[in-house]
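User: My collaborator sent over this chain with a note saying "see what the structure looks like." That's all I know about it. Can you take a look?
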Amino acid sequence: MGHRVIVGLEWAKLLKSRPKSIPVGRPRGVKAKGIHYEKELAKLLPSVSAGRWFEFEDRNGHGHCQPDFVLSFDSELVVLECKLTWVPAGHTQIEQLYQPVLESLSAKRVLGVVVCKNILPQMPVPVFGDLASAIAGARQGRAVWHWLGVGGIGEIAQAA
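Assistant: Without extra context I'll predict from the sequence alone. Here is the result:
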């Protein structure tokens, strides 16, 4: 799985910066390509909350998490989790880590969209070509935004 699963969340809070206990890495290879992909998306979404750190405590102890992007609409928060190539763990990371933390801090419904450049044949999740459609799809369940690195925002204001 590779990510923390929230069990019995006791509290959560937004941090002002990266926790000192989290080292700053220097990604290489595929990981570096994934970071570049995420940074390109950040350029397309300049007014979106990107890379904010959260601290929490649950039955597993103290922890931190950092959703890639969080879009805020009137009644919803939308978590965008970037993956260079689609993997099911992108969805479980949103559902089992980011959603519980964000729901504890907001009265808004929290939705999740996995953003990926490379999709797989016969994926068991609906795939959308623009963000607005992916957000609409996420209201029904899991959704993937197949973003190739340019455009594809659509009318996200209408998606809210």
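A starting point for your reply to your collaborator: The chain has a mean pLDDT of 88.
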